[in-house]
Amino acid sequence: MRPIAALVSAAGLLSAALIVPASAQQAPLKIGVLSDFSSVYSDIGGQGNVEATKMAIEDFGGQMFGKPIEMVAADVLNKPDVASTIARKWWETEGVDMIIDLPTSATALAVMELSKQYEKVMIVTDAASSDITGKSCSPYTAHWTYDTYSNAHTVGSAIVKNGGDSWFFLTADYVFGHSIERDTGDVVKAAGGKVLGSVKHPLNTADFSSFLLQAQASKAKIIGLANGGGDTINAIKQAGEFGIVAGGQNLAAIVMFISDVHSLGLKLAQGLIITEAYYWDLNDKTRAFGRRFQERIKRMPTMNQAATYSATLHYLKAVKAAGTKDTKTVMAKMRELPVKDAFTDNGILREDGRMVHSMFLFQVKKPEESKGPWDYYKLLAEVPADQAFRPLKDGGCPLVK
Fold it and tell me: Which segment of the chain is annotated as a signal peptide (predicted)?
C-alpha cells in the first residue's frame, strides 16, 4: 500500500497539471512553406520565401509559448495533387499549424479544400486568382500579396487611359492565367476598349513563336501577358526578337516582379508599366528589410517574398495575442490586428480572406536612369486599397453577409 503522503503528493501534481494554462501544454508551433523550388515561379517565391519565413520567426523571437517555432518546406512541383498530398501529411501526422506560400492558383485552391477539412490556417502569398477570396473563399485562408483583380485594375486601367484600347491576350492555360485575362478584359471593356482575342499556352512554355505570331496578326495595340514568372520573361524576350514593339504594338505585363526585370535587364524591360505591392526602395522600412534580405540571399526581395515575411510575422503576433493556436481564434485575431510592417503600413484582413493594402504603379527605368543594381522602378502612383482591390460585396464570397 502506498503512503497517504505519496497519494496526496500525486494528487497535488495531477491537480497542478490540470490547471496549467492550455498554451503551455501545446506542441511547438510549426509552419509549413509549400513553394516552387525548381520551376517557373522559383525566383518570385521559392527559397526566398523560406528565407523570409525564417526572418519573420527570428524577428518575432524564435519561440511561442516557451517552445522553439519550427518550420518545414517542400516543393509542390506546381501540381495540385502533389500540393494536396504534402498538405494532408503535414496536417494529419506532422503537426503543422499553418501553411504559407502556394505558388499557383491551382495548388492554392486544392489545398484550400483540405484547409477547410482540417480547419487549419493557410496564407496564400504567391498565387493570384481573385477566386481565392471570391466564390472559393474560406474562413481559414488569407490572401496576402496581390490578386488578378488588383493588378488588372491598376495596370489595365492606366494603359487604357493612355490610349491602349485594343487588346489581345497571351494566357497561361490554367486558373491563374484565365483569371488575369477575365479581370483585365473586364477593365478594358469597362473603359471603352476592345478585346480582340486570346491564345492559351501551357505553363512553363519555352517557345512562344506561334502564340506571338497570332498576337501580332491581331493588330491589337496591346498584347496582354496573362502569365507570370519565367513565362512572362520568355514572352518578352521573344517578342523583342520578333520585333513586335518595334512594329508598333506594346506589351502589358499584368503580373510582373522585380526578379523578372532583373532577369530581362533594363534594355528589354525599360518603359514597361507594372504594379507591385512592395518595392525595396520605397521608404526607410522597405529599404531596411530589402538590404537585410539581400545580405542573406544575394538579391532583393520580390513583393511575394516581402509578403511572406509580413504574413508569417502577422500570424505569429496573432497566435501570441490569442494565447492559443486554435484556428478560429487566431483567424479572428488576425482580422482584428492591423498589418504594419516592412511590406505595408496600412493592411487590413477582411472577412473574405483578402488582406487589402496599397498597391503601387511603376514604370521600369531606362538603363541610363538606373543608379545601380536593383534600382529599376520609377513610382507613378500609390493606389489606395479601396481602389486597388475588389469591393467586398462584389466578390461572391459566401462568408460575406
Answer: 1-24
